[in-house]
Amino acid sequence: MRTSLIGEGLDLRYGRAPVVHGVSLELRPGAVTALLGPNGSGKSTVLRTLARLHPLSAGEVRLAGEAGERSTALLSAKELATALTLFSQSRTCPQGLSVREVVAFGRHPHRRRFAGLGEADRAAIGRAMEMTGIADFADRGVGELSGGEMQRVWLASCLAQDTGIVLLDEPTTHLDLRYQIETLDLVRGLAEDHGTAVGIVLHDLDHAARIADHVVLLRKGRVHAVGTVDEVLTSQNLSEVYELPIDVLRDPAGGRLRIDALGHRTPRRAAPAAL
Questions:
Q1: Shortest CA distance to 92 belongs to which of 111, 105, 79?
Q2: Are strands 197-201 and 32-36 parallel, antiparallel or unpaired?
Q3: CA-derived radius of gyration, the chain
Q4: Which of 161, 212, 219, 268 is within CB 3.0–4.6 Å of 241 for a Cys-Cys bond?
Q5: Is 191 helix (H, G, I), strand (E, B) or coil?
Q6: Which helix (H) or strand (E) holds 158?
Q7: Which 3 state secondary structure label does DSSP give 58?
């Protein structure tokens, strides 16, 4: 069943300090929603809150599907883990385990207590490793891996969880150019081919322009703009949020947006038109 994830009126704090103010967003099946903004704008905190890893000061997070809507606060940990998965940056590298064993962590919500891996589990693990390009070193110890390789292992573990909602916090960090692009293609495939609702935090604005259907642009914990890529990723919006001149141009060959942050010593280039 295809399910949306809705955050409404989210107020979030760290201790007594408010960090997010009244943020609302909806992650829809078959669509990629990118959360963008400078460091400290609250985008990763919002993503963690959607996964119930950061407490709410106000507001509500709900799942919505054919059976109606339900607050995630009412779900058990297992119910939530079969509905959504989160790829986060703060993961420790387990020692003494193989790549395949770490990817298998993603199957825990689907297994009975003390039960071994079933056929469906093994199929999901194999599919996740193929999707992330790590099948060739499935039997290697994770202690032998580079940071970028370990990044893909954790991503595979999330995909093995096989949920209808996937939350990704900067999944291209530590990856070389090839695997950055392959990861972005994978994210698009989750939405287009599997109907997954994807929420993704990105720093690279060009990456967001490449894969997003919807954009939530945050500034100092508040929504500055929300809408389609063309509606949100404008020179005016980005220059206001990042507080420096930013050109947004459309590539005449491929039609994609090109985003160019200009320093004070960078001359503005000749271009067809800024958006």
A1: 105
A2: parallel
A3: 19
A4: 219
A5: helix
A6: helix 147-160
A7: strand
CA distance 78 to 120: 18
Summarize pLDDT for 34-49 with one digit per residue, the tens.
999 999 999 999 999 9
Give the helix ranges, DSSP H, for 94-138: 99-103, 119-132
What is the DSSP secondary structure assignment for residue 270, as one 8-state letter? Answer: P
DSSP code, position 107? G
Edge-to-edge strand ranges of the sheet holding 32-36: 84-87, 165-169, 197-201, 32-36, 214-219, 222-227
**Helix, strand, coil content of the chain in percent (nearest 5):** 35, 30, 35
E strand or H helix at 57: none
C-alpha span between 1 and 4 (Å, rounded): 10
CB 163 within 8 A of CB 136: no
Residue type at 144 in one-letter notation: E
> What is the value of pTM for the model shown?
0.89
What DSSP designation does 38 have?
S
For the segment 192-238, what is each residue's pLDDT rounded down to a tens digit?
Answer: 999 999 999 999 999 999 999 999 999 999 999 999 999 999 999 99
Q: Which helix (H) or strand (E) holds 116?
A: none
What is the CA angle 107-192-188, rounded to 5? 75
Which helix (H) or strand (E) segment holds residue 17: the answer is strand 17-27
pLDDT tens figures, 81-117: 999 999 987 677 788 899 999 999 999 888 776 667 8
Residue 84 CA to residue 196 CA, distance in Å, equals 10
Other Cβ atoms within 10 Å of 219 Cβ, number: 19
